[in-house]
Amino acid sequence: MRTVILVVLLCLAVLTAPLGWYLASRSLQPAPKKPVETVDPAEFEALRKSVDELTERVDELEVKLSRADIRRPDTSYADEEAPKEDAMAGNYAKVVQIADRRGVNEGLTHASASFLEELLGLPREDLTDECQPMTNETLKNLLVAEDVGPIKVNMLRPAVESLRQVFRNVQIEEPELYARIQGSGSLCVRRIRGAESAASAHAYGLAVDINIDGHLDQLGDGRTQLGLILMADYFNREGWYWGAGFGREDSMHFEVSREKLQQWRRLGKI
């Protein structure tokens, strides 16, 4: 009986040997490589655009939330009057991303150096990189140095009158912001750096630089103080162009737009 069992086992071993060899050889073979997935350039560009749009939307929401913070009353004081200015102290100077930077001057056009020269002539013939006195007699007769509310400026009279209205509106609607405005410069009769004779709006007394709490904005970083974003609405309403829309962002800078200058020319103000 034992012999019969051994014979049966031997036969089974012989019969299953090919199957064992096959399975062993399969286990030693490398796994087949998965095909490399290719990226559709059009699909990639669409995804990149979606990411950019989402980023821009986040920036817009950040600004809206910051504005809401400014206007939200402080209820943390129960038995005493809330110090409103202190509660808002950190908001106006807060630096945020400028959403839709290229669209901030809707309806207005930058007055280029060539446009200003054709309309008004050069403020002086021998422009250099340093600020010098204005020699254009027509412009000199329009030049005034006056207080316009929170700051003092040296600019053409119609620009001073318009700027005073800008700040009057801010004082009425945003008195806390009005109290924080500081000047960073107005008239400077010099050529645009890198140019031979072109003069900027500052050289004509048609531009002003402002800041919040004396903190100067970093040029060209696409960011600015929240207070300047709020100020831009008031300047736009009066026909002033915001420097945040320049190729190289300059958000402290506000200048009279081409449309406003053309209106002043029609009215005989310049």
Task: Characterise the protein shown here.
The model is unreliable at 4-9, 11-16 and 58-87 (pLDDT under 50). The strands form three sheets. The chain has a four-stranded antiparallel β-sheet with strand order 4-5-8-7. It has a two-stranded antiparallel sheet with strand order 1-6. It is 43% helix and 13% strand. The chain is globular, with a radius of gyration of 35 Å. A hairpin with a 4-residue loop joins strand 2 and strand 3. The protein contains nine helices and eight strands. It has a domain at 95-266: Muramoyl-pentapeptide Carboxypeptidase, domain 2 (2-Layer Sandwich), CATH 3.30.1380. It has helices at 2-28, 41-71, 84-87, 113-120, 137-140, 157-173, 175-178, 226-237, 258-266, and strands at residues 95-97, 143-147, 152-156, 181-185, 207-212, 223-225, 240-242, 253-256. It has 270 residues and is of the alpha+beta class.
Topology at a glance:
Blueprint: H1 2-28, H2 41-71, H3 84-87, E1 95-97, H4 113-120, H5 137-140, E2 143-147, E3 152-156, H6 157-173, H7 175-178, E4 181-185, E5 207-212, E6 223-225, H8 226-237, E7 240-242, E8 253-256, H9 258-266
Antiparallel strand pairs: 1-6, 2-3, 4-5, 5-8, 7-8
Please outline the major beta sheet: 4 strands, antiparallel
Mean pLDDT: 79
The CATH topology name of the domain at 95-266 reads Muramoyl-pentapeptide Carboxypeptidase, domain 2
Give the helix tally.
Answer: 9
Specify Rg, calculated over alpha carbons. 35 Å
* Percent of residues in helices: 40-55%
The CA-CA distance between the termini, in Å, is 127 Å
